[in-house]
Amino acid sequence: MPKRTAYAQGTPSWVDLQTTDTDAAKSFYGGLFGWQFDDQPMPGGPPYSMALKDGEVVAGLYLQSPDMSARGVPPMWNTYLAVDDADAATEAVQGAGGQVLVPPSDVMDAGRMSLVADPTGASFGLWQARRHIGASLVNEPGTLIWNELLTDDGEAACAFYGEVLGLTSELSDMGGSPYILFKVGDDMVAGSMPPPMEGIPNHWHVYFAVEDIDAALAKARDLGANVVNGPMPTPIGPMATLSDPQGAMFSLFAPSGQAE
Hints:
Helix content is 19%, strand content 44%. The chain is an alpha+beta fold. Strands 2-3-4-1-5-8-7-6 form an eight-stranded mixed β-sheet, with helices on one face. An eight-stranded mixed β-sheet has the order 10-11-12-9-13-16-15-14. The longest helix is centred in the first third of the chain and has 12 residues, at 22-33.
């Protein structure tokens, strides 16, 4: 379902990049994915840039706060999960052993959001849509195709996301390695696995679709990215993990079949 008009609770609905250099990030992702950018003024701060693909909103981008930069927080991609009621879901996070990092607040007329962390330490956003539903185009080249929780405690994560958001989970075989699938009803909406290397903190990771993994990696390198891992074959298509020129990690995925 490439074009979206709504997201069920628990579904990843939006991703945005907090970066130390917005102009450089726009140049990189614009060159890699063909994104254009629409800068939205924000009260009392730098603009929030909407990334557009074929006229549809696909991601966001903003300048990291001076406080975060001073604390050495690296540039990163953030995942937001759709909720019907941000206040109720945020309260449930605390009851399920998670942590509230930023309490719920209105983002003008776009929606209401909070920032939280699960019991394994992975942070994410809760997004209650109003005018802005999240990404209006997904699962096509140059857009978000998958979100994955990298955590060293899958059992605790499954219990938490089930209690807070109603997600169910099941084990799948990804080429011999166990892989957790999160589901809303019958729909697979996200996955989870242990971090692939020592030293990687628990976090939500993002995947963007491409048509040709080798061509995309060559272009990414030319634009200043570092290829961290891959390309590696999987039963559903080749993948690779990169860091952008400012250090934010993300993955590319060339699906071998039709993405749903």
